[in-house]
């Protein structure tokens, strides 16, 4: 099961758009007991995760000779709680922060290029980071 409640908005502050967000997510997964190919009995289990996220994202234009260039980013506070997931509890459960930063470039001819990076785990043992690169062309 997966359930999610999300609220967000947009507020203009001079040229910058602020986007507050709140997200509540609950998911659970159940596995029935079974026997593997070596004859070992694997017990059934149920694992659940509840996560609350609150934060503020932004988008602000940057000078560009052609097209439109936007700097994007944000900070979020996250609290996660697991049930019956002992392996995940050690690093993932509790509070942490997440930051992301990126650029969006729109050419004006239907093409958009975006790039970004994020770090998740500020103030906790949990650590995740990554980058994205995207190209979208409407024709």
In short:
Helices cover 5% and strands 71% of the residues. With 139 residues, the protein is mostly beta strands. The strands form two sheets. Strands 1, 2, 3, 6, 7, 8, 9 and 10 form an eight-stranded antiparallel beta sheet that branches.
Provide an overview of this structure.
The chain is mainly beta and 139 residues long. It has one domain: Beta Barrel (Lipocalin). The chain contains one helix and ten strands; from the N terminus they run βββββββαβββ. The strands form two sheets. Strands 1, 2, 3, 6, 7, 8, 9 and 10 form an eight-stranded antiparallel beta sheet that branches. The protein is elongated and about 65 Å long. The two termini are 38 Å apart. The model has no long low-confidence stretch (mean pLDDT 91).
């Amino acid at each position: 099961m997966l359930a999610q409640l999300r609220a967000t908005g947009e507020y203009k502050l001079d040229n910058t758009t602020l986007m507050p967000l709140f997200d509540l997510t609950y998911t659970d997964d159940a596995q029935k007991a079974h026997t593997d190919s070596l004859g070992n009995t694997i017990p059934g289990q149920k694992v659940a995760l509840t996560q609350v996220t609150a934060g503020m994202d932004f988008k602000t234009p940057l000078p560009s000779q052609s097209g439109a260039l936007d700097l994007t980013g944000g900070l979020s506070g996250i609290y996660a709680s697991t049930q019956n997931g002992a392996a995940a509890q050690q690093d993932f459960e509790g509070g942490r922060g997440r930051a992301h930063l990126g650029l969006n470039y729109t050419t004006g001819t239907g093409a958009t290029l975006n790039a970004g990076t994020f770090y998740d785990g500020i103030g906790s043992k949990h650590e995740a980071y990554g980058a994205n690169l995207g190209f979208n062309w409407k024709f």
